[in-house]
Design goal:
The chain has six helices and four strands, in the order H-H-H-H-H-E-E-H-E-E. It is an alpha+beta fold. 48% of the residues lie in helices and 21% in strands.
Length: 182
């Protein structure tokens, strides 16, 4: 069986079309991988903020347990916003009562303010012994709106430079505790 010159030319090497199709497939796979990586980064940052909010809630609960007399009296209730950081307990060896309460609340609210648009409040829901408090730590998760999570409504705000941008979703971590004075 003798091969002709035409048959040999048609079976030699790759065509330009095959190379372009291969490049298109590889480029699409790389773009998909990059998109997946960006989504993972947004999600992990949101998890970091949630973990920090839980840690801050546990921190103030422990501070209230350490100062039970003031907590049962209802003195740990504080509205959202940044309180003044008290340094009274940093110089005094034995700090107790209202000074310790002011120190705890000021430092806790300063730590909460480190979250993006972070604010914390403590509401006294039941006075007396036991006292029941609801602790709220809230922040803005800018990645939630971009990630397309269900139920997320992105707001629009203007920053200090006058630039309008999506502000994301406000997220809150709630904790309810009862403190009993023995």
């Amino acid at each position: 069986m003798k091969k002709t010159l035409y048959t040999i030319r048609n079976q030699h090497g790759f065509s330009m079309m095959e190379i372009l199709v291969t490049l298109t497939i590889v480029a699409t796979a790389l773009l998909g991988t990059a998109g997946l990586q960006a989504h993972a980064l947004k999600t992990s940052k949101g998890s970091e903020f949630r973990n920090q909010a839980i840690f801050l809630s546990a921190d103030i609960v422990e501070r209230m347990e350490a100062n039970k007399a003031e907590a049962v009296a209802g003195n740990y209730a504080v509205a959202a916003g940044k309180g003044a950081v008290s340094t009274a307990c940093e110089v005094v060896a034995a700090c107790a009562g209202p000074d310790l309460t002011a120190y705890d609340l000021g430092n806790w609210q300063a730590a909460v303010a480190a979250l993006p648009s972070g604010s914390g409040s403590i509401a006294l829901t039941t006075a007396g012994n036991p006292a029941t408090y609801t602790i709220t730590v809230s922040w803005t998760d800018r990645g939630a709106a971009a990630a397309g999570q269900a139920g997320v409504v992105a707001g629009v705000g203007t920053n200090a430079a006058g630039v309008t941008a999506a502000t994301g979703q406000e997220i809150a971590a709630l904790t309810t505790i009862k403190i009993i004075r023995n």
